[in-house]
Design a protein that fits this description.
By secondary structure, the protein is mostly helical. The chain has a single domain (36-132), classed as Alpha Horseshoe (Serine Threonine Protein Phosphatase 5, Tetratricopeptide repeat), CATH 1.25.40. 73% of the residues lie in helices and 0% in strands. It contains seven helices and no strands. The protein has helices at residues 4-27, 36-49, 53-65, 71-87, 91-104, 112-115, 120-132.
C-alpha cells in the first residue's frame, strides 16, 4: 500500500532522475558535420563512381590543391584523380597523381582490390618503384 511517505520518496526520486537525465542530455553532442573538404571529396568520389570523370577531376583537383585539406584527404583525392586520369587514357597524368600521393605519404598503397586493375595497377607500380629510388 502506498503511504504518504512512499509517495513523497517516489516523487523525490522521479524529480532527481529527471534532473540527472536532463544533465546528461546536455552533455550529449550532435555528430560533427563533415568538413567542406570532406564533403567535396565525397562529391568528387560520387562523380567518379557515376562515370562523370571531367566533373570528378575538377572537384577532386580542388580538394587536392586546397591548402586547408588534410594530408589524408589530399592523398585520397589524388588516388581518385589518378583513377579518373587512367580511365580516360591519360596515363602520364595518372602516374603524376600517384607520384604526388606517394610524396605526401610514402606508405600510401592501393587496396588489394585496386592493385590488380588493368589500367592503374601497372601505373601505380611504376610510380611506387620510382618513389622508392633514393634521389
Amino acid at each position: 500500500m502506498m503511504t504518504m511517505t512512499n509517495i513523497g520518496k517516489s516523487t523525490r526520486l522521479s524529480a532527481a532522475a529527471m534532473i540527472i537525465l536532463a544533465l546528461f542530455a546536455g552533455c550529449a553532442t550532435a555528430p560533427l558535420a563533415p568538413s567542406a573538404e570532406q564533403s567535396n571529396l565525397d562529391d568528387g568520389i560520387a562523380l567518379y563512381d557515376s562515370g562523370d570523370y571531367p566533373a570528378a577531376i575538377k572537384k577532386l583537383t580542388a580538394v587536392a590543391d586546397a591548402s586547408t585539406t588534410s594530408t589524408a584527404l589530399q592523398v585520397t583525392a589524388r588516388k581518385y584523380l589518378a583513377f579518373a586520369y587512367c580511365v580516360t587514357n591519360r596515363a602520364t597524368l595518372c602516374r603524376a597523381q600517384f607520384t604526388r600521393a606517394l610524396a605526401l605519404d610514402p606508405s600510401f598503397d592501393l587496396k588489394a582490390s585496386e592493385k590488380g586493375h588493368p589500367l592503374w595497377g601497372p601505373v601505380f607500380d611504376r610510380a611506387k618503384k620510382s618513389a622508392s629510388i633514393p634521389r
